[in-house]
Hints:
mainly alpha
Amino acid sequence: MGVVSIHARMEEMRQLLKISQQTGWQVLGKIITSVSTFIILGVVTRNYGEEGTGVFTLALTYLAILYLLSDFGFNAHVLRKFSIFNFQFSIEWRKLLGTRIIWSVILVVLAVGLLPFWPFATKEFSQAIMIGSLAIVGSGVFVTCNLIFQSKLRYDLSVLASSTGTIISLVVFVYLIWLKYPIPFLMLAHLLGWTIIAMVAFVLIRKIGQVVFPIYDKQYTINLFKTSWPIAATLALNVVYFRADSFMISYFRSNAEVGIYNVAYSVFQTALVLPTFIMNAYYPMMLKSFKGIKIVALGLLVIASGSTLLVLILAPFISKLLTGGGFLGTSLSLQILSLGFPAYFLSALLMWIMVTQGRYKIMLIIYAVGLVVNLVLNLIYIPQYSFVAASWITVISEYVILMLQGVVLWFERR
Length: 414
């Protein structure tokens, strides 16, 4: 019994080491992209003011939603399917690539085609989306390549691809801003960055022996959408309730207030990648066993609590560093948002537990409830309290999600 216990403990430690290594690579990549993002944000705030920053960040938010939709939950479903059925992964991946390229092109058309119907779509915003929308295809290709990197626990290659595109994009961004190009034309640098990321990812995929030519299989695509739609709908609801507030602030208040809020949100969102990275590394192991899950949960809670404390103290300094002054309210908004870290970190773990168990539809219901709560509260309070209300409602919504996840999993155990 003692030998079995020691073996189990050693296996736990090996898993934690793998999680730490893969999370470390992702953190390194995020440091590079975050530094780049903050440099761009700092230069934009100083050259285009609150109004221009609002348009710029709103366009990036709009595209970010479509990047998530291009994922459509395919990766999680295919990886889970592979762990159960052990099919020929190479052929499956090439079919997935073909599906995602087609789906990404459809999303590009939708991104531009829906612009006349959005009440917040100003002329500058629409121009920015028309220029930057092709980046959706680059993002879709990169996400597909990430399935290979994730399955082989080679996030170092993923980081290499993303960092290369990010650094080149940063140089072009700064150059365009230095030349005083209008806000919409800054999206050229964004598009270039995603194109390079996708190209480098392809090269790295080929180097590890993966054939990169897509296969277009109509029946495969139909079946994939049929089986993945609950995950996709959950992710879509998650991102809508996550970012709908920016568009409401633009509609009910002004783009200047969007700029103030989105500067704070950019910092907040950077910290939220930590649970994502940890779960990216842990998910392939969860598909085999839930060993070490309590340690992962405790680690997430400790990191979240430490992050909250750090942001509460440093928010005024961070705000001034990014904006150079002005943007009144950014510091307060960031402090409020940081109170949601524990909920966001733990809900990431509980969500992937449900994915592992195939509990797609109950996840969809939970996030639908979260969306309704978020939208109703935002519609009531944003017209009067603007980004301060949006910050509090973001935090409240995630605690509602966490509570519902906990209740479902608790009753499932009993």
